[in-house]
Amino acid sequence: MRDLIGAMLRRVRQEQGRTLREVAEAAQVSLPYLSEVERGRKEPSSEVLAAIRQALGLRLVDLVGGMHMELAAPAVVPVQGVPGSLGRGPAGGHRAVMLAA
């Protein structure tokens, strides 16, 4: 979950063209801490996550909805030796699409 939250926050920040420093200052968290959160190495408290979310101009529903979209997206995983799969995967293995319900 830390990785997903961090990646999402980083993607939004980069889409906005903002630096770590700008967002960290707006959220009143340290730059190194924000960097650790974005890399999935630290799990922010609900208060810190709210501050970062607000600094990025995100509503809670945007954050939760974005995580839902990431989790619900079809995963493409390598599958060895499955005839009729979707092409060749890494190291010559086959690839298949796995859908989550």
Strand order of the main beta sheet, please? 1-2
Low-confidence stretches: 87-98
Shape: globular
Radius of gyration: 17 Å
N-end to C-end Cα span: 19 Å
Mean pLDDT: 81
How many β-strand runs?
2
Strand content: 5-15%
Please report the number of helical segments: 5
Measured as a percent range, the helix fraction is 40-55%
Main beta-sheet annotation = 2 strands, antiparallel
Structural class: mainly alpha
**Helix-strand topology string:** HHHHHEE
Short description:
The protein is mainly alpha-helical. The protein is built from five helices and two strands. The protein has a two-stranded antiparallel sheet.
List keywords for this structure.
mainly alpha; 101 residues; two-stranded antiparallel ribbon
Tell me what you see in this structure.
This protein has 101 residues and is mainly alpha-helical. Helix content is 52%, strand content 10%. The protein has helices spanning 2-15, 20-27, 31-38, 46-55, 60-72; strands at 75-79, 94-98. α1 (2-15) crosses α5 (60-72) and α2 packs across α3 (31-38).
